[in-house]
HemY protein
Amino acid sequence: MVRLFSLIGLAVILVAGGVWVANRQGTVTLDWLGWHLTANMFVAIVTLLIALVVLYWVVRGIIALGSVMSFGPGAAEGRLRAAVRGLAEAYNGLRNDNAGLARVEARRARHAFPRVGKTYPGALIEADGLARMGRASEARALYLALLSDRDAEPGALRGLLEMATREGNEAEMQEWLERALFKVDNPAWAARPAIELAKRTGRVMNVERALEVAERNGDVTAEEARAMRVTAFVAQSQAAADAGKSGDAIKLARKALAVDAGSAKAAGHAARLLAADGKTRKAEEIIEDAWRQAPDAALAVAWRELAGDQDAMARLNRVQTLAATNPHHAESRLAVAEAAIEAGLWGQARSQLEALTGGEAPSARACVLMADVETGEKNDAGAAATWMRRALEASGVVPAKAA
C-alpha cells in the first residue's frame, strides 16, 4: 500500500512538473568545443533523463559482467559463500531424507557458477535429490551429463547403479558396474554389488577386478574370493571347451586348480577335460588329490565316470581305491556304502553306514542308504520307513517332533 501511494505521488509530481515546464518554455544553449547547440527546455530535460537511464543500465551491465568474469575478490568471495551455503543445505537435506530441499538448495548453488553448465559442483546433489524424489528420467539425464565430468563421474555412476538396482535392470547394473570397476580409482562401493550380480546371474567370467577391489577393502573373505575365482576360471574353461579350444580349456582348468586344488568343482571339471583329451591317469590323480583334501560327492561321481561302463564289483573296488586316500571321512564311507549296495554286499554297506548313523543327527543321505540296506537285505519295510522318516527329519522336511 505504501509503495502504491509512493508511485501515485511520484506520478503526480512528474505530471505537475511537466505542465509547469510546458507553460514556461525556454531554451537551452550549449557551446562546447566549437559546437553550438540550442534546444527547447522540455526537450532538453527529456533527453537528459533518457541519458541518465541509459547510463544507469550501462553501469549495471558492467557490474554484472564483472561478476560473471570474476572481476575483483569481492565478487568471487560472494559467489563462494553462496555456493558453500547452498551445498551445505543441500547435503543436510539429503542426510535428513528431504530430497526436495536438497534439490532446491543444489540449484541455488548453481547460480554461483553462471558460466558452468550441468556439471556445476552441486549438480550431483541435485541429481541425487531428483532420484530420491522419484523423478527418475530427470535424475538419469543429469547423471548421464555428469559422466563427462571426471570429478563427478564416480558419483554419477553410483547414482545410475542405484537407480538400475531399484528398477531391477540387470543389464544397466552390469554396464555401470563394469565402467566403475575399470575407470574409478578405488570403487569399493561397486565391488560387492558386482560380486552379488555375478553370483545371481552366473556371469562370473569377468569377476576378477571386483574381487581385487573387495579384497583390498576387506569386503570379501578369503574363502569367498577363492570360491568365486574357481567358479570364474571353470566358466572360462567351459566356454573355451564349447568353442573347441581344448588346450585353452585345460589351461584355464589348471588355473582353477591352482586357486584351490581341493575344490570339487575345479577338480571334477579338470578331470573330465583331461579324460576327454586321453589323459585318464592324470585325471584320476587330480581327483585323488582333491579327495585327500576335501572329499565331495561330486568327486565320487567324476571318479566313477572316468572308468566308463563297469560291473558293480569293479565299481566297488574302484570306489574303495579312492576312499582309501581319506578312509575315515564321511564322504568316503557314503561312497563305499553306495557302491556296496549296488553290488548287493549289504553287510559291507551296513558297516560303513553304522559309523555315520549312530549319533543323534545322522545325515539325510546316510539315512536313505540305510533304508535301502534294510529293504535289500531283510525286506524290512517297517525299518526302512523308520530310516526314511529320519531322513526327512535330517533334511528339515518334517520337524523332529512330528516324526
Remarks:
- Confidence is low (pLDDT under 50) at residues 70-77.
- The CA atoms of residues 194 and 200 lie 10 Å apart.
- The longest helix spans residues 41-68.
